[in-house]
Write a structure and sequence with these properties.
about 250 residues; mainly alpha; Methane Monooxygenase Hydroxylase, Chain G, domain 1; 8 helices; rod-shaped
Amino acid sequence: MYCKNCGKELPDDARFCPECGEQIADGDIEQKKEVYEKEPQFEPDHSNTQMRMMKSGIFILAGVLIIVVIACFAYISQKGREAEMRAVQEEKERAEEQAKEAEAARIKAEEEKQAAQEEAAQAKESVTEPAQEKPVSTVNNNYYYYQGSHYGEHDYYDNVQVDGYLWPTDEYYLTYGDLEGMDQDTVEAVRNEIYARHGYAFEKKRWRNYFGSKSWYYRDNSCTQEVAKSRMNSVEKANLETIVDYEKHMGWR
């Protein structure tokens, strides 16, 4: 049985509660016992509350992490798109710059070609002018073919002086009339003499030997045709073009 005041379990024959000193009546003892038997006391369970709080915290943390991951992914994607757009724009700008440079180079080449054609045309016109006709007397005695009285097959090999030239191609404009009567080998010699004036390194043995025998010739091993042309004056360039045209006219080219 139990005390009706404090609920202390009592011996069956107790008349006072050893815990609180309450007098125990028979009826109260039975009633109290029934109450305690019917209504057992329970201590509050805090474990479930803590578990729920932990689960809520986990869900909240997981949600925050998901949001952070999504935000990071969106940021990275945006930066990637921006980088890709910059790369495309830079490539476009490079292509436009290359196109501009190519166009500028084309225009420059056209201008240079046109200037060269105009210069050549002027040179041809000046050849036909009376003022450019071959004079009767020689400039000096070092030009073998200048007076046009020595035309013969390859006679320049033996008769041109060591310090002499075939023709003053650096100061006098040649005409077709000057070349008529010369054979192919002689015309070629006059043409090669223009190159030899500037140290052209001949590959053919015959021209190496011929010009090598002249006191004025200095062989420049680095001198190609293009280098020699870059050293020529306007008269020499015009004469070179006249000789080449004449050789084509004669079927020698």
